[in-house]
Design goal:
There is one protein chain. By secondary structure, this protein is of the alpha/beta class. It has one domain (13-267): Divalent-metal-dependent TIM barrel enzymes (TIM Barrel). 37% of the residues lie in helices and 13% in strands. It has helices at 26-35, 54-67, 95-112, 130-149, 171-181, 192-197, 202-209, 234-243, 260-263; strands at residues 13-16, 40-43, 70-75, 116-118, 154-157, 186-191, 213-218, 250-252. Strands 1-2-3-4-5-6-7-8 form an eight-stranded parallel barrel, surrounded by four helices. Strand 5, helix 5 and strand 6 (186-191) form a beta-alpha-beta unit. Helix 1 (26-35) runs parallel beside helix 2, helix 2 packs parallel to helix 3 (95-112) and helix 3 packs parallel to helix 4 (130-149). The longest helix has 20 residues, at 130-149. The chain is globular and about 45 Å long.
Amino acid sequence: MTGPAGERHSLPYTANLSILFTELPLLERAQAARAAGFTKVEYWWPFESADPSGADVDRFARSVEQAGVQLTGLNFYAGDMAAGERGLVSWVGREAEFATSLTVALGLAERLGCRSFNALYGNRIDGVAPSEQDDLARTHLAAAAKAAEGIGAQLVLEPLSGTPAYPLKTAADAVAVLDELGLDNVRLLADLYHLAVNGDDLDTVIARYTPRTGHVQIADAPGRHQPGTGELDLEGHLEKLQAAGYAGPVGVEYKPDGSTVDSLAWLPYERRGN
């Protein structure tokens, strides 16, 4: 399928503002994304703790509202990402933090219209049996999915690269969890960069798992920079995803090689928004 600028697909894009526009403070990024042409944005957890103040939550929400962009995705609190933590879904002993961040995320979603939550699974923990972590993950995911269903939202489960202790590395790893849950609103987050780096064949993933996919994100590999800096045929893969039935947004989630604005040369201005 050919998009309006002659691209091989017409899927909409959403700018991930936890990795793009980091030249600016987080609360200024939505406005910068809008100025660059984006009308949809997504974030990782945008606060320093699982329990931000009401004032901090309001400031974040107003930064999105005042920019006039749609919030399409939000991560639950994932712990200290800079220190290598990758989610609390399976983290025994941090259940209260997960529950608190779920409440905050749901409130933001109701205010801003977000209907997709990334529930990072969490690393394996020394001294805790993997089976105990997986039991907790199922409990957390089921509870969060029920809460999300109340506002018509979904959860997505993401395989990650670069973190050996994180157990979901391939699409099949995540889909196995989805199969155990059996819930329609818990789906795969297919980050084409992470999947490729971990050895998944992207064409096979698309052919097999597009019906289970709730969100897609992109960066080129190797390097995790903008499309065209690596070896992935991202346009081709997105074309195949759309042909296989995926119709949601594509998260632009790369580390810009250069300034964010300069790094967007691959994406025509008229393809960044609605």
